[in-house]
Design goal:
Elements lengths: L16 H32 L4 E6 L13 H8 L6 H8 L22 E3 L9 E5 L30 H62 L2 H9 L14 E7 L2 E6 L10 E2 L4 E5 L17 H6 L2 E6 L5 E5 L6 E6 L1 H18 L4 E5 L15 E2 L30 E4 L5 H11 L7 E4 L8 E5 L4 E4 L4 E4 L3
Parallel strand pairs: 10-14, 10-15, 11-12, 11-13, 13-14
Antiparallel strand pairs: 1-2, 1-3, 4-5, 4-9, 5-7, 6-7, 8-9, 15-16, 16-17
Helix pairs in contact: 1-4, 2-3
């Protein structure tokens, strides 16, 4: 049966908390760098604009000029060194409203004392002053001996926050929040894990009780369901030897209302109406012609199948349907390890199945070296206190799920070991069940050297059968 294994490699998902934290820190560093660049660019642009200050000329009073009125030409000569550049000054101030409500509309217009005229940026001299540009109005320049300051705009002052500053504040808040999250991450995870364990611990008794009730219901169903057994044995006829081909071994079956699934050796194939599911599984629907429906019989559920095969329901699959295995293909010892309580349930269920289909089968029970309690033999089987054995050398120790290729032999008798066998029990197993022995079948509740099949149980009532790549729920 080693050719049937379809086991897949199990993948384990590892947490990468440190990598996640480093990724977050790198992202934050990039965000802060971008904010600083934006802030620096905005600051540079703001500084380059000179804070809105421009050069101006304040038209003096006639008393200050000795009665000589100022003109655009005289202003250009004193501030630009060239009277012909008066047109530039006119272009800069054309139509701009002054404090007295008047405006410069022509090159020859008289300049009123107190007017503030814009000057080109290259203007210089003692009469050149700085003022803040307000768009359509020039702010008043400072008086003699005073520092340059913005005009009184109390009536129109608005409080604004630069975009770069707002981005920097938001980035700082985000940095603080994520840093706090990273620092508290492990505490939160530990608290969540502790709470989850507490919730599971509180609910575990109810879940265990519910699983046990479901397993007991499966055991009651097996005790009364003879129909699935009949249909399973009838299925074997499709794979019996003929003149055209030899027997194709059926290692396991799944029977349900819609059809039947069989596990064959990977090198074998089934004829229509069987369809292939994977390398070892084939399925035939109930609607296929010639299929035995519930209550029907054929006179050829061959006696050879019933006599040689020993189909037992090992448990139910995830859909609640029974899965049969053929103990006549065990050819030695079955080791059921893992959770000891569930392992004993597995062996007890197999004994009950044999008692229903093969009553009066002889059984001998051996105590394991670990002192496990005795196992109750179901009614219908013939318990023998001790079986005389021949001296047979113990088989080589095996560690896999299957020891070697099995040959088929009828189940003549059962040897049950209630725990891990010691030296004496191992010798009796070898003599009764090993190669060249009495041809009995061994069922061991624990690890056994040289076991042909190895099944594994867990505390939730499941048994894993690696050679079939299935997990079943064990009846209780």
């Amino acid at each position: 049966m080693d050719t049937m294994s379809n086991g897949a490699d199990l993948g384990f998902e590892h947490r990468r908390a440190n990598t996640t934290a480093r990724t977050l820190l790198h992202a934050l560093a990039a965000l802060l760098a971008a904010c600083l660049v934006a802030l620096g660019a905005a600051t540079s642009a703001h500084a380059a604009s000179g804070d809105g200050l421009i050069k101006v000329f304040v038209v003096p009073d006639l008393a200050q000029t000795g009665g000589q009125p100022a003109t655009l030409q005289s202003i250009a000569a004193s501030t630009l060194g060239d009277a012909s550049r008066s047109e530039e000054i006119f272009d800069l101030n054309r139509g701009l409203a002054q404090k007295d409500g008047a405006a410069l509309n022509g090159p020859e217009d008289q300049l009123h004392p107190g007017w503030i005229l814009r000057l080109p940026q290259d203007a210089s001299g003692p009469e050149v002053q700085l003022a803040r540009d307000t768009g359509t109005q020039i702010a008043s320049p400072p008086g003699p001996g005073q520092q340059t300051s913005p005009p009184d705009t109390a009536s129109t002052t608005k409080f604004t926050i630069p975009l770069a500053a707002a981005v920097a504040v938001l980035a700082a808040i985000l940095l603080a929040l994520i840093t706090a999250g990273i620092v508290a991450r492990r505490r939160v995870r530990r608290a969540y894990a502790t709470s989850l364990r507490a919730v599971r611990k509180v609910g575990e008794p109810m879940r265990r009780k519910r699983r046990l009730m479901q397993r007991r219901a499966a055991g009651r169903r097996f005790a009364t369901d003879a129909e699935s057994v009949r249909r399973a044995y009838a299925t074997l006829d499709d794979f019996a030897p003929t003149r055209q081909q030899p027997e194709r071994p059926v290692h396991a079956l799944r029977v349900d209302d819609t059809g039947v699934t069989v596990w064959l050796t990977a090198s074998d194939a089934a004829d229509a109406p069987w369809t292939n599911i994977d390398s070892t599984r084939w399925r035939r629907p109930a609607a296929a012609g010639g299929w035995l429906t519930r209550g029907e019989t054929t006179g050829m559920t061959s006696q050879s199948s019933v006599t040689t095969a020993c189909l037992v329901r090992a448990g139910t699959d995830s859909d609640g349907e029974p899965v049969f295995v053929d103990l006549s293909r065990l050819d030695g010892v079955l080791s059921v390890s893992g959770d000891q309580t569930v392992a004993r349930d597995v062996v007890h269920n197999l004994l009950a199945e044999i008692a229903r289909t093969r009553p009066d089968t002889p059984v001998t029970v051996l105590r394991g070296a670990d002192g496990a309690p005795a196992l109750t033999v179901p009614t219908g089987l013939r318990e023998l206190p001790r079986v005389e054995t021949l001296a047979v050398s113990a088989p080589a120790t095996g560690q896999g799920t299957v020891r070697a290729g099995a040959s088929r032999r009828p189940v003549q008798g059962l040897v049950v070991v209630t725990g891990a066998p010691g030296e004496r029990e191992a010798a009796e197993l070898a003599a009764l069940c090993g190669p060249g022995g009495a041809g009995w079948t061994g069922l061991v509740c624990g690890e056994a050297s040289g076991a042909h099949w190895r099944w594994y149980t867990d505390a939730n009532g499941h048994v894993d059968i690696p050679v079939l790549d299935v997990q079943l729920t064990v009846p209780a």
